[in-house]
Write a structure and sequence with these properties.
Length: about 260
């Protein structure tokens, strides 16, 4: 698995939410996260960690975003953000927010791929020279894009990030970069409402999917997809109390290996 400093690979997720305190309470109880708050010119940024490893960030939406749904965003580390932003348009995507500076010396841009899935680019600033994804409970263990047009998505990410895609017999595609697995690609399941756009999904590792699913409901969240088995374990799709969706995965019943082993 590539490390967090690898260019053109995922290296961060964060949550935009209308009530940061409530979201922090939810994820602290559900996933065992600890939080430290960084004061910035853009507002308080809350960094979640588990076992002293940073997982992602939580930030309260600005007043002008009032009414916008809570959502998780996947970030990809790039070497030259201006060059990549240009390639987004050339590949059929759109730029929602051109590159702008954030505290710490990095620059960020929010973009949409050619089939409507939003994600973010980040360049510069401090990056840990370590593997970021992990199967340890509470950590990000995978990211994937759920697409309304799998072939268009494949072409887009191959063009923008130089990824290669391989597809298994069950139709699931895995993107690789220099031989290392970086993300997944899945056709939008038929049970997803037609109005739901293509999007990036974030998976968090848990010790027991069913136990975590029940805990999420007790904490005010909801279940979009009940716990079900897959080749590498069990997963479920949940929604937090503010409406942000995320996936959970346990590997206790895995019959096959997983690319993330730390």
């Amino acid at each position: 698995m590539v490390n967090a400093a690898t260019f053109n690979a995922p290296n961060w997720v964060d949550l935009s939410t209308p009530d940061a305190d409530a979201s922090i309470d939810f994820y602290r109880e559900l996933l065992g996260w600890e939080f430290k708050t960084q004061k910035t010119e853009m507002g308080d940024y809350h960094v979640a960690s588990v076992d002293r490893r940073d997982v992602g960030g939580v930030m309260e939406q600005s007043p002008e975003m009032a009414g916008a749904p809570a959502s998780w965003t996947v970030f990809f580390n790039v070497e030259d953000i201006d060059e990549v932003v240009d390639s987004i348009g050339e590949a059929g995507g759109r730029v929602l927010e051109p590159p702008f500076p954030i505290p710490g010396g990095a620059r960020v841009s929010v973009v949409i791929d050619s089939v409507g899935a939003m994600f973010a680019l980040i360049s510069g600033g401090p990056v840990a020279d370590a593997v970021w994804m992990s199967v340890r409970p509470g950590a990000v263990c995978w990211v994937e894009t759920m697409s309304r047009d799998v072939e268009a998505s494949r072409r887009f990410y191959e063009a923008v990030f130089g990824w290669d895609a391989s597809t298994s017999d069950d139709g699931y595609s895995t993107f690789t970069l220099d031989g290392e697995q970086v993300a997944g690609l899945l056709a939008m399941p038929p049970m997803v409402p037609d109005e739901a756009p293509s999007h990036w999904a974030v998976y968090f590792a848990v010790a027991d999917c069913e136990v975590t699913q029940r805990a999420a409901v007790d904490l005010g969240g909801s279940v979009l997809v009940e716990t079900r088995p897959v080749e590498i374990g069990r997963f479920a799709v949940l929604e937090d109390p503010a409406g942000a969706t995320f996936d959970i995965m346990d590997f206790s019943d895995a019959s096959m290996g997983h690319p993330i082993t730390v």
